[in-house]
Design goal:
It holds the Pfam family CAP. This is 6551_t:CDS:1. The two termini are 14 Å apart. The longest helix has 17 residues. Helix content is 36%, strand content 22%. Helix 2 crosses helix 3. The chain is an alpha+beta fold. It has a three-stranded antiparallel beta sheet.
């Protein structure tokens, strides 16, 4: 199932710029563009803050896995995933970067 939303959770860059780059690549593959969503933004930033606080790159969080964290921020999902990275020259907080992907539950 294709994901319909994306948010990049980092406070050091503009998510709209990253989204434009992602959608440019998606269009080359004839995939629908992704859109920003406030709840996903909050969930992604929550995970970035956790990684930065403990200085480790991890999908684990005492608040629960990605699905639980999305529900915490009022995003009722049907599919969800998370990409984490560290060491980017832009788009990170204390070296950590996060993107949460999900499809709304209908």
């Amino acid at each position: 199932m294709e994901m319909g939303m994306i948010i990049i959770g980092a406070d050091a860059f503009n998510p709209t710029t990253v989204l434009k780059l992602i959608n440019k690549e998606r269009s080359k593959q004839r995939l629908r563009p992704l859109t920003l969503h406030g709840a996903l933004s909050k969930a992604a930033q929550f995970q970035v803050n956790y990684c930065a606080r403990f200085n480790k790159l991890t999908h684990s969080n005492p608040a629960g896995p990605i699905g639980t964290r999305l529900l915490r921020f009022k995003y009722t999902w049907s599919t969800a995933g998370e990409n984490l990275a560290s060491g980017f020259s832009v788009g990170y907080k204390n070296g950590y970067w996060c993107a949460d992907f999900a499809t709304l539950l209908k």
